[in-house]
């Protein structure tokens, strides 16, 4: 038997096997990097990129104590129409310029845009911007979402999910609608007690900061990130598919009145409209008012008209205050005429 010959055959076959194996590995690597990659791989990569983007923008906007200010905008809030000379987003940013001790807070504002136009507008102002991708097929978040319309409700739930993700990352936040005017720094009026987990605005204040009978308003609130508030938001969001005809605010209010915050140990403070006011109940004191929310108003056009009046009233107050004038009988809020009419249309 010719043993050396057999050894050469074995070595040749082994070499061929190695060549074939390397060839197959090369094909697999090429296939993986091509445009025909597995949808699963694409999804994982995209998800990782999104998580990294969220963490990056939160870190950039955050204060030293891991607190951010979050607002949501869409095209209807960010883009001027042919008849308009300003937008809701313009008014929102103007209030930071005109308010007391509010200009520096813009550095900690995270603007979440739900469409490309809103995102581009945010980037134009060089703010902290994040474009929210949505899995809601067939839902157009660009146009005006009239109060309690189907798309309005979907947008509110998408917002809640994003804010849950912020809490899970260890960031506390003030959430503010873009139709809230920031006339003073709200941190000076919020409780510094770290045991206060949720501080939330009300449509009408009942003179009891602990009363669960309040009509809450999720257009402005402060949440501390901890296990209790994460559990609250998870419970809240879990009700999304069993809340037909209800907006997320209604669901949270029902949960609070049924005792969910007491069950979870979440300490809630309901905000006084003297400081955190709105069109439902005006603040009675210009010296105390901190924010003004265009609540109890149905359309963007009406909100813009009446918020312009709010800023005019505020500038007038500041002018009279600077001149040491008697403010008692000379300063008052303009009537919210357009918002009143918006419910009749």
From TrEMBL:
Q: Which residues are in the Nucleotide-diphospho-sugar transferase domain?
A: 105-307
Q: What is this protein called?
A: Nucleotide-diphospho-sugar transferase domain-containing protein
Q: Which Pfam families match?
A: Nucleotid_trans
**What top-level branch of life does the organism fall under?**
Eukaryota
């Amino acid at each position: 038997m010719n043993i050396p010959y057999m050894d050469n055959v074995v070595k040749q076959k082994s070499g061929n096997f190695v060549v074939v194996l390397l060839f197959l590995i090369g094909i697999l690597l090429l296939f993986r990097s091509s445009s025909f990659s597995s949808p699963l791989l694409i999804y994982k990569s995209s998800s990782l990129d999104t998580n990294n983007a969220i963490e990056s923008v939160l870190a950039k906007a955050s204060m030293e104590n891991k607190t951010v200010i979050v607002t949501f905008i869409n095209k209807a809030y960010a883009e001027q129409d042919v008849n308009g000379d300003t937008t809701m987003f313009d008014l929102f940013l103007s209030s930071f310029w005109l308010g007391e001790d509010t200009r520096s807070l813009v550095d900690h504002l995270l603007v979440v845009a739900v469409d490309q136009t809103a995102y581009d507008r945010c980037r134009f102002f060089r703010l902290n911007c994040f474009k929210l991708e949505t899995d809601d097929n067939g839902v157009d978040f660009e146009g005006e979402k009239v109060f309690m319309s189907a798309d309005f409700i979907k947008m509110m739930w998408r917002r809640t999910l994003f804010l849950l993700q912020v809490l899970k990352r260890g960031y506390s936040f003030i959430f503010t609608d873009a139709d809230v005017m920031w006339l003073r720094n709200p941190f000076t009026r919020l409780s510094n007690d770290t045991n206060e987990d949720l501080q939330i605005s009300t449509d009408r204040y009942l003179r009891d900061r602990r009363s669960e009978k309040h009509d809450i308003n999720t257009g402005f609130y402060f949440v501390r990130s901890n296990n209790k508030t994460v559990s609250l938001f998870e419970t809240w969001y879990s009700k999304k598919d069993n809340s037909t005809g209800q907006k997320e605010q209604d669901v949270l209010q029902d949960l609070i009145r049924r005792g969910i915050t007491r069950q979870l140990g979440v300490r809630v403070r309901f905000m006084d409209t003297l400081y955190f006011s709105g069109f439902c109940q005006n603040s009675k004191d210009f010296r105390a008012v901190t924010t003004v929310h265009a609540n109890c108003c149905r359309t963007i056009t009406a909100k813009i008209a009446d918020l312009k009046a709010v800023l005019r009233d505020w500038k007038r107050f500041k002018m009279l205050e600077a001149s040491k004038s008697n403010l008692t009988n000379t300063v008052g809020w303009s009537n919210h005429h357009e918002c009143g009419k918006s419910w009749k249309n």
